[in-house]
Amino acid sequence: MSEAARILRFPERVKDPASRAEALADAARCLREVAVADDESVVVVAEEILNNPDILLAACHLIGQELDVEPARSLRVATALYRGVLKSPKTFGFFDERDYFLGETALLNGRACRFLGKRADAEIWLDRSEAGFRNTVNPSPMLSRVSLQRLALRCDMGRYGEVAELAPMLKTTFQKLGMPREALQCLYVEATSLKHTDQISQARERFDEICRTGDVEGESLVTGMAFVSMAELHAADGDFELAITAFRKATPCLKAAGRQMYLAHLKASVAEMLLRQGQVEPAIDAYQDAASEYEELGMSTWVAYLRVETAGAMIQAGKHKEAAWQIAAALPTIDQEGMTPEGLAAVALLVESAKRRNLNQSALDEVREYLRTKR
């Protein structure tokens, strides 16, 4: 027989595959152990997960569900899994599983870093994810998911023009691939970029489309965030009744999704609306409540941003001493983010002006804008 015509046998499984329910149960047990494990024990638990590709697949699914609930823990375990797959032999799995899991675990790490504000790290992890997925048999769906995270990262960094240009093309790709949930997420990223580039009517159209179709796709999270964005637009127009209605519609959607991070974002948006209405004391309470939730998630950049926002509201309320404390509490994060000398001068000026009970608005705006791009 010609060598070209020979039929190659796939490797046989050493053990019977686990059912989906069994794999999810084993993966959930391992991830619970990670929650209380030290760094060395995390590696041991990761090795147990890596012993069975079915459990590893289930673990990736569960980590993906928890990313925006416990991003710091998710990053910890996903990093251990990635390193474990990287050290595994080329024969890991039965076909292209090794390359797939390199891409999947790296993508989880990239998403976790983005939520935590570690954007340089997120970019590196997304590069690793792309490198892994490119070696799979059908890379297009996975690479499109990486592209979506790159768009979201650009949106976080304030590169809205790029996002507005690229998002519609990626949405079309998702539609062709039969990935409606990802297409809806892409539409949300596009709408957000349009909102921030003052293309308000186009942004409204897209947010409204999400609000009308999101539940059909089972995307209560995206639907809830679209309602929050609509509320922010109404509040900016001074139409507070419509804003409150939109916030009320957002709340059950976000609660159904069970995502603390987005509920914290809703509270921050409500605080901004209250401040626009002149309800300073309730705004301060809402800002502090949102900051506390972000702090529980380990999202230090968001916490610092809200501390600065809270300081501005406190100064309006005549609470200058408390405002100075809020700004001082944000300083470690600002230092960690490597602010420019000019920016640090603005921080110093802001602290001093708060102490003197004479807020320097330009300094406040500069620090706020800097942290906004770092969130």
Describe this structure in words.
The chain is mainly α and 375 residues long. Among the domains are: 19-137; 293-375, no CATH class. Helices cover 77% and strands 0% of the residues. α11 packs antiparallel against α12. The longest helix has 19 residues, at 97-115.
Class based on secondary structure composition and strand pairing:
mainly alpha
Alpha carbon gap, first and last residue: 63 Å
Low-confidence stretches: none
Strand content: under 5%
Radius of gyration: 23 Å
- The amount of helix comes to over 70%
For this entry, give a set of tags.
about 375 residues; mainly alpha; about 75% helix
Topology of this protein?
Blueprint: H1 20-35, H2 39-50, H3 53-66, H4 71-87, H5 97-115, H6 119-133, H7 140-156, H8 160-176, H9 180-196, H10 200-213, H11 220-236, H12 240-257, H13 260-276, H14 280-296, H15 300-316, H16 320-336, H17 341-355, H18 361-374
Helix pairs in contact: 1-2, 1-3, 2-4, 3-4, 3-5, 4-5, 5-6, 5-7, 6-7, 7-8, 7-9, 8-9, 9-10, 9-11, 10-11, 11-12, 11-13, 12-13, 13-14, 14-15, 15-16, 15-18, 16-17, 17-18
Write a compact overview of the structure shown:
The protein has 18 helices and no strands. It has helices at 20-35, 39-50, 53-66, 71-87, 97-115, 119-133, 140-156, 160-176, 180-196, 200-213, 220-236, 240-257, 260-276, 280-296, 300-316, 320-336, 341-355, 361-374.
